[in-house]
Design brief:
This protein is of the alpha+beta class and 295 residues long. The protein has two domains: 1-102, 2-Layer Sandwich (Phosphorylase Kinase, domain 1), CATH 3.30.200.20; 105-236, 2-Layer Sandwich (D-amino Acid Aminotransferase, Chain A, domain 1), CATH 3.30.470. Strands 8, 9, 12, 13, 14, 15, 16 and 17 form an eight-stranded antiparallel beta sheet that branches. The chain has a five-stranded antiparallel beta sheet with strand order 1-2-3-7-6. A two-stranded antiparallel ribbon has the order 4-5. It starts with 12 loop residues before the first strand and ends in a 6-residue tail after the last helix. The protein has helices at 51-65, 90-93, 119-127, 166-173, 175-198, 249-257, 271-289; strands at 13-16, 20-25, 28-33, 38-39, 42-43, 74-76, 97-101, 104-105, 108-115, 129-130, 133-134, 144-150, 153-154, 162-163, 201-213, 216-220, 229-233. Helix 1 runs parallel beside helix 7 (271-289), helix 4 crosses helix 5 and helix 6 (249-257) runs antiparallel to helix 7. The chain contains seven helices and 17 strands.
């Protein structure tokens, strides 16, 4: 069953993102990860089987693993523990939803980069720096950085997020909170990267979202998924090229090849591209959390 939209009758829908539908349940939120896929900031007409389950199950895996480092918004992902009014939708909600505490999100994406890839590589080629952080000369594409760097960004409702400096983040949320978020973000990245490498995956970079709950800093949204992180297979990693990633690479390559102008509406995807993308997401879940899923 591919789920590209949800409708839970009697449960207020309070938000819809590119991937997630968010419902209000008493004083909590129900976050449902659909199988929708966006590319170049446009939601595609075809869903990717199992994608929402991969995002949810991986987030739950990491939230539980890192709870001793920083609290998070997860209450439960077990449908049998949901309020009675949700259990009628167990077939839709199972493995693709989380009941979470409602926090006040910080107005920034908290990005940690361990390798020179994506926009960081482009920035470095032009300036020798990444988000204002000076890096050694002579680094190559996809090269591991001497130390992970913290590069926050503003959250854009449409289009791409915009990279900002740590000082600009401090202007938004305060110096003390910026330092705390930076320290936690880098610690999470280091620990997850070390673990992932034992499972054959390099985490090139990742982004976190934090919120405040009763004045206390907590992790929210998702964590270390193929949508929030750049995963590379360690066996395919080579310095000097952009390694294939465990996300929508099949889709991006196809859309580029057919000459799509990146404006809505997006074209439909052929079955082999959908299947290849689904397999890549599932492989990330299998390797990292040792979980296999059905559609």
């Amino acid at each position: 069953m591919v789920v590209t939209r949800t409708e839970l009758k009697g449960i207020p829908l309070v938000g819809t993102g590119k991937v997630r539908d968010i419902y209000q349940v008493d004083d909590k939120l129900l976050i449902v990860a659909t199988d929708r896929l966006s590319a170049f900031d446009v939601v595609l007409p075809d869903g990717i089987p199992g994608k929402g389950k991969v995002l949810t199950l991986l987030s739950v895996f990491w939230f539980e693993r890192f709870r001793p480092i920083v609290p998070n918004h997860l209450v439960t992902a077990n449908v049998e523990e949901y309020p009675p009014e949700l259990r009628a939708y167990r077939d839709i909600l199972k493995d693709r939803s989380m009941l979470v505490r409602k926090a006040q999100p910080l107005p920034v994406e908290c990005v940690v980069r361990g390798y020179l890839a994506g926009s960081a590589w482009q920035d470095y080629q032009q300036t020798g720096s990444v988000c204002g952080i000076r890096l050694p000369a002579g680094l190559k594409q996809a090269e591991k950085l001497p130390e992970p760097i913290f590069t926050p960004a503003t959250k854009a409702k449409t289009g791409h997020d915009e990279n900002i400096s740590e000082q600009e983040m401090a202007n938004l949320v305060g110096v003390a909170l910026t330092r705390k978020v930076r320290q936690i973000s880098i610690e999470l990245y280091r620990r997850a990267s070390e673990y992932a490498l034992t499972r054959g995956i390099i985490i090139a970079d990742t982004k976190f979202e934090f919120g405040l709950l009763n004045g206390k800093l907590i992790l929210i949204d998702e964590i270390f998924t193929p949508d929030s992180s750049r995963f590379w297979a360690a066996s395919e990693y080579r310095v000097g090229i952009s390694p294939p990633s465990f996300d929508k690479q099949f889709v991006r390559d196809y859309l580029t090849a057919v000459g799509w102008n990146r404006q809505p509406p997006a074209p439909h995807l052929p079955p082999e591209v959908i299947a290849g993308t689904s397999a890549r997401y599932r492989e990330a879940l299998r390797l990292l959390a040792e979980v296999d899923i059905e559609n």
